[in-house]
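User: Sequence recovery, please. Input:
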């Protein structure tokens, strides 16, 4: 789970009910200053927000709201409550420092899909090549909460967080089949 306010990744053991802050107080889970989504004055910087687990459960991908950095960490490091924060931080891999300003993550195959907030579209990041691309879409008002269907269709909602309430249109549920 993410803590978008204070910045952190929390782990909950569903068998025991025990939870702990696996990542906290480090730059990788902090809000990134001057991210593109901050054009709207009513939005405060948010820390770790986008999160996705690999299909095998061994890797967790994460980014801050509107962030340019994409990170990955082996979940074994997160699941070990006796590991120090320094040990966990060393286990974090920086996959990209050039995201356009992301929100939401959804993994399909070796591609992480996310919002491209400055361009009102979607962004696809190839985990094998470590290259990203903007997906040509009609304008999307803050894509958020992405999910993949078994047939490969990508579904997402629009939260319109960067619009004043008076400028919002009806919220939508969209699909993309690449």
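Assistant: Recovered sequence (178 residues):
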């Amino acid at each position: 789970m993410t803590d978008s306010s204070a910045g952190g990744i929390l782990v909950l053991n569903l068998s025991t009910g025990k939870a702990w802050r696996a990542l906290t107080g480090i730059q990788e889970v902090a809000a990134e200053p001057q991210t593109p989504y901050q054009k709207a004055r009513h939005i405060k910087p948010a820390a770790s927000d986008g999160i996705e687990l690999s299909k095998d459960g061994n890797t967790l991908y994460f980014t801050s709201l509107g962030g340019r950095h994409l990170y990955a960490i082996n979940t074994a490091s997160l699941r070990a409550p006796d590991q120090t924060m320094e040990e966990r931080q060393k286990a974090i891999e920086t996959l990209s420092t050039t995201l356009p300003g992301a929100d939401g993550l959804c993994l399909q195959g070796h591609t992480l899909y996310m919002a491209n907030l400055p361009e009102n579209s979607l962004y696809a990041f190839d985990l094998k090549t470590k290259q990203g691309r903007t997906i040509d879409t009609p304008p999307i008002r803050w894509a958020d909460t992405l999910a993949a269907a078994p047939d490969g269709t990508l579904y997402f909602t629009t939260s319109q967080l960067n619009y004043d309430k008076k400028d919002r249109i009806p919220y939508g549920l969209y699909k993309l089949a690449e």
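The longest strand covers residues 19-24.
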